[in-house]
Design brief:
It is built from 9 helices and 9 strands. By secondary structure, the protein is an alpha/beta fold. It has a single domain, classed as TPP-binding domain (Rossmann fold), CATH 3.40.50. β4 and β5 form a beta hairpin. The longest helix is centred in the N-terminal third of the chain and has 15 residues. The two termini are 16 Å apart. Bound molecules: adenosine-5-diphosphoribose. The site of adenosine-5-diphosphoribose (APR) has 21 residues, from α1.
Length: 227
């Protein structure tokens, strides 16, 4: 029998208990920052220094010793090491590095990564774990997919969804497309679709199985069934 193909979509909720704010909670990332200013290309063109200083601040947070993977990140990493990277794919909307830190290998960062920068002229992507100095290089931008930009690796993602036996969505509110539409594609592909979230998302009715609670509790519990 072929092993199960498990495709996991994660959002800000999986990192909430690790000390990183979700986007749409009251104390969310955007509080005090207008989305149009810090998460659009137009905002970047208006004030590149302000946008760099915002992402420099977020990048610094990843180095805060208190920001560590939680048991949900670890459970997904263990699942991958048990079933093999070819059978477990994490598609994350998160720009943090907590899946990597937990030990996951097969991770698709569809909205980019805080620890990478991109040269606007050449498209070249660089690892970066320090502040970006825009004054030194005007071509370097955060490797982050802003509103109005096309998420990364979409062909690869659709391939995974079309071949999924399980599609598990964790900690995402279902507000932002294309990720919010993945459950529909997975259902059409015949996958079992599961929502694990603190509360029902906007897409709740499209999932075959829904379990609500903090990710650190419900994700390790759910993942046990694949042992
Ligand atoms: N455990 C599980 N789920 C949680 C927890 C938790 N401890 N805390 C919060 N959540 C849930 C919330 O109930 C909410 O449904 O996580 C979800 C977070 O939703 P959003 O803040 O909207 O984050 P996300 O869905 O990842 O946002 C998608 O929007 O702004 C853009 O590009 C940004 O990638 C981001 C995208």
């Amino acid at each position: 029998m072929n092993p199960l193909k498990i495709v996991i979509l994660t959002g800000a909720g999986i990192s909430a208990e690790s000390g990183l704010s979700t986007f749409r909670a009251q104390n969310g990332l955007w509080e005090g920052h207008n989305v149009d200013d810090v998460a659009t290309y137009e905002g970047y063109q208006r004030d590149p220094l302000a946008v760099h200083s915002f992402y420099n601040m977020l990048r610094k947070k990843l180095h805060d010793p208190s920001v560590q993977p939680n048991s949900a990140h670890y459970a997904l990493a263990e699942l991958e090491s048990k079933l093999g990277s070819e059978n477990v794919t994490i598609i994350t909307q998160n720009v943090d590095n907590l899946h990597e830190k937990a030990g996951s290998k097969n991770i698709i960062h569809m909205h980019g990564e805080l620890l990478k920068t991109r040269d606007e002229q050449t498209g070249e992507v660089f690892y970066c774990d320090e502040d970006i100095d825009y004054q030194k290089n005007h071509n370097i931008r955060p490797h982050i997919v802003w509103f109005g930009e096309i998420p990364l690796y979409m062909d690869e993602i659709y391939d995974h969804l079309m071949n999924a036996d399980y599609f598990i969505s964790i900690g995402t509110s279902g507000h932002v497309y294309p990720a919010a539409g993945f459950v529909q594609i997975a259902n059409q592909a015949g996958a079992k679709t599961v929502e694990l979230n603190l509360e029902p998302s906007l897409k709740q009715s499209e999932f075959q199985v829904t379990i609500y609670g903090p990710a650190s509790k419900i994700v390790p519990e759910f993942i046990k069934r694949f042992e």
